[in-house]
Every structure is written in structure tokens, then in C-alpha cells.
């Protein structure tokens, strides 16, 4: 029942809400005579679908002492049984699409559970570990940061899925496929490391307003940020810092070669300016990540299935590394609809479209993202001050021809 920040939710609520999604958008609409588990759950576990009625305020989800966990698990079993029974009979294509969407929605909540548990344990004064065993420091050195250059040209971004395919799933905000012009640019071959970010701190990066967007400077000072989330001053370490992980606090010295994470967009942007670089646009990132090698890169990525739940150093392989997994990569792109974007009809149209305001796009997934959930066109989005997600950055530069290694 712990809810350590209004951005997070108790795990019991995640279990109930994912069940609510199947009940609301599949069973109630496509199963004749379906008997709901409890009529109160329609509003109690509604997240943000205003067209479906009222909902409790998000920050109050930790107060749901009732229904009990036993009752929530019984609700989940009731819904699962009904969905499986539906699938054993001839089923409408739209119902199958909704089931697929429900699975994708549940994968998103699997990731949120990881991030929410980590934050909940961190806010405990004892700083307990989620995992007491299995910690092994990855002694691998991150390879030197180099650049991959891209010439200017017109590309196609996004997807237009086959309307008749159940397997060809994408979210509506990834559609439609459309042309985008890219000026010449270069992208870094790997993510920014903790050691590199520490250098930014050591040069008073949080005290230099010329590096920060105005809102970022105000947010940073109001919230008292002096380092990424989970970084703690620790005079017992060589670096003077330790970092909270799912294995408890660890010296930054042991994690210096791993990608820096739990950064806001404001921090990522300030670091990029300090480096003399910038963040990539979402379309620069997508063009670099797409292509025949994307499937292999996803399979090799440090995603949820590795069970690391922690970013790891980049490999020494040539070319772009860490495009998928480790940390969500902030881009400089605002979250807006593509040309010709159409939200889904009905209440499901609230899933993505209504959040296209004051949000920034992230790409690539993290160490908490299920492998089968991520793809080059996937668009994640959060407010620019968000830090509780596994979010980091990759540097970019203007001008392919002039970018140096």
C-alpha cells in the first residue's frame, strides 16, 4: 500500500487497475451477460478516463486499505477467468485488439511497479534493499564516447499498422507514418555515465543558471536538487557520493561506468549544454535506432528480462550501443500528435491524446521495460521535472560532417 510520491501508485492498485482495464474495455463491451465483480470498482480503480465518470484523486491511492489484497486478487482471478473464457469462443476482431492493448497496458504497469517499489524503499529511512543477494559490481569500463554521423535527408517516422492485424500493435500516438526532414547531425555511441555526470557536478553544474532552462532553474532550486535522484553525499567513498539501487546504497565509485539515471529533462538538457552538445530530437533517435539491426539491439538490451533492474556499462562493440534498455533517453522533442494523428474512438481516446501538453518525449526503454514491449517507434512521455523513472541521456550534435570523435 506504500505510495511514496504522487507520481507513483501502490502495487495493490496496479494489480486492481490492470484488471479494471480488461473488465472495462473488453468484458463489459464484448461479453453478453457479463457479471461485474463489484460495481464500485468502475470508479474506484479508474485512473484518468474522465468520460467514464469520477475517480479518486491519484495521490490518495495509498489510503485504499479496502478492498483488501485478498479481495483484489479475487477480482483479478474473476477478470482473468472471464477473459480466457471469451477467448475460447469465436471473438470479435475488435475484442481481440482490446485484449492485446490490455496486455501492452499491463506491461507498462509492470515497469511502473519496479520504479514505484524502488522509490518506496528509498523513502524508507532505513534505505532497505529490494534484493539482498546477487549484487555483482560490473567492473567493465565504458568505451570512449564517439560519434555516429548522419547526412541530411527526408525520412519516414512512426508507423501505420495493418488495420486487420492483431499482432501488428502500436499505440495511437505512434501513428501515422509520415515524412520528416533531418538536418545533418551526429549521435553519441553510448549513454552518458555517472562519472561524466559527476564532472558536471564538480564544475558547479547545479549553480550555473546559464546552463539551465528558466523553468528548470526554478524547479531545481525550489525542489532542492543538487544531484540526480538517489544520489546521496557520502564522505566514506572516494567520490563523496553513494547511489541508492535495488540492492541498497552503493558507492558511486562502483557505478561510475554505468549510465547516469533518474534525471529530469531539465538536468539532462543542462548537462548537454555544459558538454557543448544537445539532446537528440525524437526523430533523430528513431532514425538511428530503426533498421534491420533494431531487433538484435532489442534482444541484446539490458531490459526487464535481464533482471538487473540497474543500468550496466556499455559494451565495446562498434557503433551505437544501449539504444534499448538501461535508461529511457530524454529527447528535446515535445509530446505532440503526428500530422494526421487520430486518437482512438471513445474513452480509449483518452489513453494518449489528452496528455499532449507540457510533456517531453523519451525513447528506448529502460532496465525495467519488458523486452516485447519496446520498439524503435515507441514514444514514452513525462513532464520535464519527472525523476522517479529510469531516465538518462545520450548526447547529440548538429552537423554530420563537422562532428568530431
CATH class of the largest domain: Alpha Beta
Poorly predicted residue ranges: 401-405
Main beta sheet strand tally, sense and closure: 4 strands, mixed
Binned strand content: 5-15%
Number of domains: 2
Q: Which shape, going by the Cα principal axes?
A: globular
- CATH topology of the largest domain: the name is paralog of FGE (formylglycine-generating enzyme)
DSSP strand count: 12
Question: Widest sheet: strand order?
Answer: 10-9-8-11
Q: How much is the average pLDDT?
A: 94
Tell me the name of the CATH homologous superfamily of the largest domain.
Answer: paralog of FGE (formylglycine-generating enzyme)
SS summary, helix count: 10
Oligomer: single chain
Supply Rg: 22 Å
Span of the ends, CA to CA: 49 Å
Write the element-wise H/E pattern from the N-terminal end onward. HHHHEEEEHHEEEHHHHEEEEE
The structural class is alpha+beta
CATH architecture of the largest domain: Alpha-Beta Complex
Model description:
With 405 residues, this protein is an alpha+beta fold. It has 2 domains: 11-123, no CATH class; 147-195 and 255-398, paralog of FGE (formylglycine-generating enzyme) (Alpha-Beta Complex). Helices cover 30% and strands 12% of the residues. It has a 4-stranded mixed sheet. A hairpin with a 2-residue loop joins strand 6 (241-245) and strand 7.
Amino acid at each position: 500500500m506504500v505510495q511514496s510520491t504522487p507520481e507513483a501508485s501502490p502495487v495493490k492498485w496496479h494489480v486492481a487497475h490492470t484488471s479494471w482495464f480488461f473488465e472495462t474495455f473488453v468484458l463489459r463491451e464484448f461479453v453478453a451477460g457479463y457479471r461485474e465483480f463489484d460495481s464500485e470498482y468502475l470508479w474506484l480503480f479508474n485512473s484518468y478516463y474522465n468520460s467514464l465518470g469520477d475517480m479518486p484523486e491519484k495521490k490518495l491511492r495509498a489510503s485504499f486499505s479496502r478492498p483488501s489484497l485478498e479481495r483484489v486478487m479475487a477480482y483479478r482471478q474473476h477478470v482473468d477467468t472471464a477473459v480466457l473464457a471469451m477467448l475460447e469462443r469465436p471473438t470479435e476482431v475488435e475484442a481481440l485488439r482490446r485484449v492485446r492493448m490490455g496486455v501492452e497496458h499491463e506491461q507498462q504497469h509492470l515497469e511502473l511497479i519496479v520504479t514505484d517499489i524502488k522509490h518506496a524503499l528509498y523513502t524508507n529511512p532505513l534505505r532497505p534493499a529490494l534484493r539482498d543477494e546477487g549484487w555483482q559490481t560490473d567492473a567493465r569500463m565504458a568505451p570512449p564516447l564517439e560519434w555516429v554521423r548522419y547526412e541530411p535527408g527526408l525520412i519516414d517516422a512512426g508507423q501505420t499498422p495493418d488495420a486487420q492485424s492483431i499482432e501488428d500493435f502500436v499505440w495511437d500516438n505512434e501513428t501515422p507514418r509520415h515524412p520528416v526532414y533531418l538536418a545533418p547531425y551526429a549521435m553519441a555511441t553510448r549513454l552518458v555515465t555517472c562519472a561524466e555526470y559527476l564532472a558536471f557536478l564538480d564544475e558547479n553544474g547545479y549553480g550555473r543558471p546559464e546552463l539551465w532552462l528558466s523553468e528548470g532553474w526554478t524547479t531545481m532550486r525550489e525542489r532542492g536538487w543538487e544531484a540526480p535522484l538517489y544520489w546521496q553525499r557520502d564522505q566514506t567513498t572516494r567520490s563523496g557520493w553513494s547511489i541508492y539501487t535495488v540492492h541498497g546504497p552503493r558507492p558511486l565509485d562502483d557505478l561510475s561506468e554505468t549510465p547516469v539515471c533518474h534525471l529530469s529533462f531539465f538536468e539532462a538538457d543542462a548537462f548537454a549544454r555544459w558538454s557543448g552538445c544537445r539532446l537528440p530530437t525524437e526523430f533523430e533517435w528513431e532514425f538511428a535506432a530503426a533498421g534491420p539491426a533494431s531487433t538484435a539491439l532489442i534482444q541484446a538490451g539490458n531490459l526487464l528480462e535481464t533482471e538487473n533492474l540497474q543500468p550496466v556499462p556499455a559494451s565495446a562493440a562498434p557503433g551505437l550501443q544501449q539504444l534499448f534498455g538501461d535508461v529511457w533517453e530524454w529527447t528535446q522533442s515535445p509530446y505532440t500528435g503526428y500530422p494526421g494523428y487520430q486518437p482512438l474512438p471513445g474513452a480509449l481516446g483518452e489513453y494518449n491524446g489528452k496528455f499532449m501538453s507540457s510533456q517531453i518525449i523519451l525513447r528506448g526503454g529502460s532496465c525495467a521495460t519488458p523486452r516485447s514491449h519496446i520498439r524503435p517507434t515507441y514514444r514514452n512521455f513525462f513532464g520535464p521535472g519527472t525523476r522517479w523513472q529510469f531516465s538518462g541521456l545520450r548526447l547529440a550534435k548538429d552537423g554530420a560532417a563537422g562532428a568530431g570523435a
